[in-house]
Amino acid sequence: MFQQEIESIIKRNDLELSFGIIFVNDTKFIHDLPTKINQNVQFLVVETWKVYECYKINGIKTMKQLGFFDVNFHYIPITTLSFEERRSNFHGYKTKVMVEAWTPYLTLNLNPAILDVNSETYDVTNLTKGREYDLLMDMQNYMNFTTTIHKRQDGKWGPIKRLENGTVVTAGIVESVTSGFAEMNLW
Questions:
Q1: Which sequence spans correspond to the domains of the chain?
Q2: What per-residue confidence (pLDDT) applies to 33?
Q3: Which residues pair with 20 in a beta bridge?
Q4: Measured between alpha carbons, how far is 48 from 51 in angstroms, rounded to an integer?
Q5: Is the CB of residue 53 less than 8 Å from the CB of residue 41?
Q6: What contacts 167, CB < 8 A, 6 or more positions away?
Q7: 93-186, which class in CATH?
Q8: What does the alpha-carbon distance between residue 146 and residue 104 come to, in Å, rounded to a whole number?
Q9: pLDDT tens, position by position, 82-120
Q10: What's the pLDDT tens digit per position in 140-176?
Q11: Local structure of 60: helix, strand or coil
């Protein structure tokens, strides 16, 4: 029952668990509870006093020992890599990026682009140039992910409105991300 309770806390969408330490009895328990790549949750195995991380990205579980506690209960790290460095491999994750032209930083060649009538976007994956695009390609190569790049047919950037009750209403390129169609905006 304890494992199910921990799993429900790690996976809750209404609670953004970004970091913490979970004490467990053995490493099998850790392997059964991978966190998301952006959660800095560490597992401490009380039988061995070893500290691990385990996360899942693109269907691949990665489990690494980070350190251990010695007989005097001093923490001894076995890696000098930061959280960001340890989590920099997205294992070929495929993501959608939304763009709008922003000269001179981002230019699009729409002549050969084909409109996807269902999403009302153009696929401009190989039709984009500029400094912002170059930065995205550097990130893609460094972090081992791939992208498809899309431009909205309506060309809208927004707006973003906050209602009196605190609800945020989005439109345009921002709505493409908040709706789940894409995961990133490039602008």
A1: 2-86, 93-186
A2: 80
A3: 41
A4: 9
A5: yes
A6: none
A7: alpha beta
A8: 24
A9: 999 999 999 999 999 999 998 889 999 999 999 999 999
A10: 999 999 999 999 999 998 888 899 998 888 899 999 9
A11: strand
